[in-house]
Amino acid sequence: MKVLTRLLGKIITQGTLTITYADGAQEVIGQSAPGWGDVRIRLTDAAASRAILRNPELGAPECFMDGRLIMEQGSIWDLIMLVTGNTALERNTPLHAPTVLGRVVERLKHWSDGYNKRDRSKANVHHHYDLSDTLYDLFLDKDRQYSCAYFTDPETVGLDQAQLDKKAHIAAKLMLKPGQRVLDIGCGWGGMALYLNRVADVDVLGVTLSEEQLKVARRRAEDAGVADRVKFELIDYRDVTGPFDRIVSVGMFEHVGVRYYREFFRTCHNLLKPDGVMLLHYIGRLDGPATTDAFTRKYIFPGGYAPALSEVMQASEQNRLMLTDVEVLRLHYYHTLRHWHDRVVAARDKIIALYDERFFRMWTYYLAAAASGFLYGSQTIHQLQYVRDRHTLPITRDYMAQAEARYRAMG
After folding, report:
1. Which of 49, 58, 56 has the alpha carbon at shortest distance from 27?
2. Whole-angstrom distance, CA of residue 49 vs CA of residue 69
3. 310-324 confidence digits (pLDDT tens)
């Protein structure tokens, strides 16, 4: 039995994985079970199995991207779900204390994840968000929301409606009033800012470090005839001048870097009026501080890190931002990523024409791996509401439901 087979045999017990090696040997791992996939792969050279063994986080995706790990039955989505499903966070196995070496290695990686100086932040944003507009149009919703949607019913609600519902869900937590001034940190292509202006009659400043996103956002504001009230700037959030009645940030906090969390919240505190409200939406972690996996760090989001709630609270508490509401959206991003993945697969030829086969494989691996993190792993979504003054908001949450219903009715 091959070494890779023995290793995977300790992981996969439900469902089967058949591996055909470069020398023609074929070995089967696991056993068929209802609800579990039966996947077949082929490794084209002996070095492929060594690369996977040496560094599974990077070796497996790179072999897949380079065509050295070939799917013969099932897709890369099926393979990733098979492996991660057998190692789910909820699995019933004993817990053991980490070794001293393990703790040191994790701490060093964690420190590296948090190193996002200003120049590095801009470079990291450019790496991912300044890709072709056409690519994002192929798999995102019509408003180009590149963050977790909100599914009231995953079986019947489509991606476009779920993203619209996400915006209503967030807007309701801001308790908006006409004429207020709102800061959108990490505004993307402008969808949230334009939405808040439309449904709540507020003025919005959106800030981004992506030149491509800035162009689109400004064009959309001009086309909507609201460029005088919804403005976008290419500027670091630390250089913004306040004050603001409200601050919203969706999907940007993952790029701040752990070392800069206190600076982020200190900046937000100083930008927010004394009676202001802030809503922070970000990818979080269910199992405590850790590190970003090697594939994501190298190919998808350099400098990106999904923090544990404990890490966020340490920083916000130090800067006198009072936490007034916490919501954990456990599975919504899985359903969002499932839609994105299906759209990417359907647009395969167009994406290959934009880039190449290797990029297409990389993108499908990224979406499948991310989805598995929300279905089986430690990933989740946190929505945190903050104020500077504890008397700012009503003492019950009824106002949120009322506002959300009103915004949804507006479409």
Report:
1. 49
2. 9
3. 999 999 999 999 999
Q: Name the one residue in this structure whose structure tokens are 């790990």.
A: 69
| SS3 (DSSP) at 395 | coil
Tell how strand 379-387 and strand 272-285 pair up.
antiparallel
Determine the average pLDDT of the residues in 41-47.
97
DSSP label of 14: B
Residues of the domain holding 270: 118-410
User: What is the token pair recorded at 405?
Assistant: 């219903």
Contact status, residue 283 vs residue 380, Cβ threshold 8 Å:
yes
| Whole-angstrom distance, CA of residue 243 vs CA of residue 150 | 30
Quick: pLDDT tens for 127-185: 555 578 899 999 999 999 999 999 999 999 999 999 999 999 999 999 999 999 999 99
- Residue 333's nearest CA partner among 287, 286, 268 is 286
Whole-model pTM? 0.92
Q: What is the CATH number of the domain that holds 188?
A: 3.40.50.150
How many domains are contained in the chain?
A: 2
